[in-house]
């Protein structure tokens, strides 16, 4: 069984890799960090107002990555509010989906990294089609 130090180093690497996939989208979205107490986090938001399910939001979440204990959480809101985006996700990525929009990532293979990159592209395109970006 790997030591805690090894797991921590692995989660740091996974977090950094996923954050690097999100960063290019920060040029057109609102970036935030430090919003989750005692955890490393990076969030991207769409500026509003955004209409969704009969409500108006001043901002709407696009994607987040949060370093959790034992895994890295990748949150893609587009898959819970746009079913067409979820249909574009790879089976390997869907296996990591816990709940409506959170993926538990413990290891990041080159293929999974490509799958996440594709999911981000599909999410961005889905939001753009809705007029949110």
Task: Explain this structure.
This protein is an alpha+beta fold. The chain contains 5 helices and 6 strands; from the N terminus they run αββββαααββα. It has helices at 4-22, 78-81, 83-86, 91-94, 110-129, and strands spanning 30-33, 41-52, 55-67, 72-76, 97-98, 102-105. Strands 1-2-3-4-6-5 form a 6-stranded antiparallel β-sheet. Strand 1 (30-33) and strand 2 (41-52) form a beta hairpin. Helix 1 (4-22) packs parallel to helix 5. The chain is globular and about 40 Å long. It starts with a helix and ends with a helix. The model is unreliable at 1-7 (pLDDT under 50).
Question: Tags for this entry?
Answer:
single chain; 133 residues; six-stranded antiparallel sheet; 38% helix; 30% strand
